[in-house]
């Protein structure tokens, strides 16, 4: 039986070679977040085409390329040398080389190194080409159902990345997340996950989806109230291991209603005595600045308490 790698690379070339790949360009290439089968055909083509692969960890990337039957010169570019190494990459690009940049996993330049490199290349007037692929953020969001649960937020979310290490700063960050009704995605390492779980309990019943070891053999995805995350971790010892992605869901209409101040509540109640429900909600939103959807949820609740209300 023939080895599958040559056939895979041939398929990558056939699928991707029709696009133009300019020289003197930086290619930001997404790589698998765990499962090697998640590499894109275009990523394979680019990695086989470039003159140099700049990377977060040369050992890790060397093993990755070897797994696909690729061999390319490697250049270390990580958080500790990014400014200096970026200039070395810029010099290669000016010479007309194609250079790819990959982080250890996923899409580079977000929570991983690469942003300073892109900034240096753009400042030098050089082209940066995205080669999309695996992302732990979109992978977890796709299995949360968060857009259906909070349709009024229209699928919006905030990417917070890794929260501050210091306890006080992390708690303040979580308080800000809790005050924002939009969904939020955060990342965390295993040695800090227990502390994060304790702080997330501040969010109470706010819905939380946890992704652990996504795409890997012991992948877990679980959904729960934020207050229950600590108990979920403690239920099985292995749950403290691996990389974590978490989605704090958007507030529900009922949760939004719970945050409305007493003056706005009274304004709505008075308007409902004189106006139809929708008109009362619209006018109250104009007067108080409270989001109309939150007021509508509260109005429905008030009408249930007083069935004779219009």
**Broad shape:** elongated
Beta fraction: 15-25%
Query: What oligomerization state is this entry in?
Result: single chain
Radius of gyration: 25 Å
- The CATH architecture of the largest domain would be 3-Layer(aba) Sandwich
Structural class by sheet pairing and helices? alpha/beta
Biggest sheet features: 5 strands, parallel
By CATH's scheme, which homologous superfamily of the largest domain applies? Tetrapyrrole methylase, N-terminal domain
Helical content class: 40-55%
What's the rounded overall pLDDT mean? 90
Tell me how many strands there are.
Answer: 10
User: What is the CATH C level class of the largest domain, in words?
Assistant: Alpha Beta
* H-E string: HEHEHEHEHEHHEHEHEEHEHHHH
State the strand order across the main sheet: 3-2-4-1-5
Domain module tally:
3
Intertermini distance: 76 Å
